[in-house]
Amino acid sequence: MLDVSLDIFQNIKFLPFVASILVVVFTYLVTIQFCQKRFAGIIAVIVLLQSYTFLKYTKAYVAPFFLMTLFTTYRSQISRRTKIAILISYFVIVSVAITLVFVGDTIYPDIIDINSSKFILGFQVIIAQLRFDLFFIMALLPVTVGLMFLSKNKLKHADSILILIFGIIIASPILVTFTYHYEILPYRFIPLLVFFSIGVGMFFSKNSKIHV
Predict the structure, then answer these.
(1) Which residues contact 84 (CB under 8 A, 6 or more apart)?
(2) In 3D, which of 190, 202, 76 has the Cα closest to residue 148?
(3) Among the ranges 65-69, 96-100, 111-115, 165-169, which has the highest mean pLDDT value?
């Protein structure tokens, strides 16, 4: 995206800026879809736009969260045949990727270096990278607990958002544990901030009453 932006528009920031707008729109529309309330979408957008990390770093970064989206697919209201087709497609894609990594001419088979001590350090690095997002740091625990109660009270998609937040947080420590080729950088947490914002918006859903 950065190369295309530079080659076509002579401005490396143009397409990432467009992507940033689309991420905001995506956050708004998904929150409305989940919560059936426009105000919840507005809250999610406000939470996202106040984020230091979101405003500072390019949103050209995209990553496949296969394991996390599996749960969302399972919980979605689509036909059993469609779910099976999606799961099969995931399996095929992952299998092809693994084959290319270990059979093809790539550097990745040589970068596996297991170091369990890096797992805890990975969480410390995440905190350091997101230290300017004060609202996120302060609200992560209460939002997580609140989503658990919303899920318990059968608010649709609350558990999916919870899994996505948890999955993105734990992905980086796991990766640095198994390879030295991965660095925990701030822009990698743009998806986390998006799902966190949607999670905050879910508290303003029409059916968001929490019963402890």
Answers:
(1) none
(2) 202
(3) 165-169
